[in-house]
Amino acid sequence: MDQARTLRARHKVEARELILAAAREAFVREGHADFTMRELARRLGCSAGAIYLHFAGKDELLHCLVEESFAKLLDVLAQAPVGADPTANLKAKLRAYVDFGLLYPHQYYFAFLLPAAARSGEYASATTPREAFAVLRRSVGECRSRGCMPGVDEETASQALWAAVHGLTSLLIAKPAFPWVEKERLIETVVAMAVDGLDDVPVSGSGMDVRHDRG
Predict the structure, then answer these.
(1) Sequence-ordered alpha helix ranges (H) in 1-150
(2) What's the rounded Cα separation, in Å, for the pair 154 and 180?
(3) Of 85, 99, 132, 139, which sits 20 to 30 A from 75 (CA to CA)?
(4) pLDDT tens string 147-186
(5) Using one digit for the tens of pLDDT, what is the confidence trace for 32-84?
(6) Taking CA 131 as the corner, what is the angle to CA 128 and CA 137, rounded to the nearest 5 degrees?
(7) Cα separation of 146 and 142, whole Å?
(8) Which domains does the chain have, with CATH numbers?
């Protein structure tokens, strides 16, 4: 009985993963407005009812894809190298962010490029985006506490760094045919300029509360 229950649970997990993988590609290609559960079922070779056994509808499916994407980002950020130099650690986190986008462009789309209008109702707000930003802010805070960025406002610096790496990542994903310089050198240059440049832009102020939604 236990083996049968385990097997059913495994099949359920595998089915959800197959549905999410197909939905991820369909959402990116067709957009939220044109995506339908019926078309997803056609792609999977099953009935729409089979999908509804695992997901209540399109909104829940989309919510799962967003949460899954941020969970992957958190995992990538957690694997960034950590050493004795807080500034080097911060740069490693920013580099990990860019690597996440380039390695998983579809997940990056759901995490940061999905139109806000696509998420509604009970699925409109998620805690994971704030958790991901908090990782960056903690790294900036560590730099300040160690005297690396004494005159920089933590919230402003965190948002500025996020804007820098998000802009770079989005461009590299959206414009692959552009004649970029060697990609590794470009990424290292942007990260170095963003972090090292903060020392030349002292900012005072209370900043904003990290608890508001950045999804």
Answers:
(1) 2-30, 37-44, 48-52, 58-78, 86-103, 105-108, 128-145
(2) 32
(3) 85
(4) 888 888 999 999 999 999 999 999 999 999 999 999 999 9
(5) 777 888 888 888 888 888 888 888 888 888 888 888 899 999 999 999 999 99
(6) 150
(7) 6
(8) 1-55 (1.10.10.60), 60-215 (1.10.357.10)
